[in-house]
Specification:
Radius of gyration: 30 Å
CATH architecture: Up-down Bundle
Helix content: 40-55%
CATH topology: Four Helix Bundle (Hemerythrin (Met), subunit A)
Structural class: mainly alpha
Number of helices: 6
Distance between the termini: 59 Å
Number of strands: 0
CATH class: Mainly Alpha
Shape: rod-shaped
Strand content: under 5%
Largest sheet: none
Length: about 180
Amino acid sequence: MTEREPVQPTGATAYPPAQGPDTGSTAPDYSARPVAIRGPESLGGLLLILAGIAAAVSLLLDWLEGDDVSGWTLVRAGFDDLGGIFDTGLWQPLAIVLGGGVLFVLGILMWLPMRGHRFLGLLGLLVTGAVIAAVLVPLQDADWDLGFFGPGFWLGIAVAVLGLLGSVKALLTRPKVAR
């Protein structure tokens, strides 16, 4: 007897046609690589929220020692004279208080679950750079005499420090991956 080759059926079948050399394998249609977990940036967000709170509280306190000038008075004067804020030096309280408000919003956004918070950390670092400049210029003008400033300005310094720490924390934290 001679062996016969199997006859391939012709016509319609219930099975799809074979495609490629991996026919019949059980390989999944998805990637087997680790996936970034969506989660909050807790510490960085908390530090930025604290920076925003410090900026808000600084509005109520005196910024100069021995002078009855609150942060609210300086910010209101800065908004009244927007054209000359760089000539009068009122850009510094505006930068500290408004920068603190932006850092507060970024801190809240960092508590939202995302794959990574590096972009928010970069934005926070840019805003913090303006706040740091607004803190260093008056310090240099006062010849680094910290006794010249009141508690409102001290909270402005806290805005700069907390903003820097929170932004760098968010910027350097890598996304967590599931394994």
